[in-house]
# Entry
Amino acid sequence: MVTNKRLGALPVAAEFLRRLDVAGIIDALCPPNPRAELTHGQVIEVLVANRELVRQAAAARGESKGRKTRRSRWTLAR
# Structure
């Protein structure tokens, strides 16, 4: 039995983040908690991939055209 799943750009985004060694860099700066199932770097990789893919999907549906986006309170101050 063969199961097909549409993954979209997720494998590409995941491979790109792995090549940049995002998790390794973050984990070197924030050592992982031995009780945690995931490291800080792994979580950040997932969040970055999700953020980019959600933005692309919204743009493809035309949701971001001409609309002001709500600023997140979690953005970094410049």
User: Anything to note?
Assistant: The chain has three helices and no strands. Helices lie at 10-19, 22-29, 40-60.
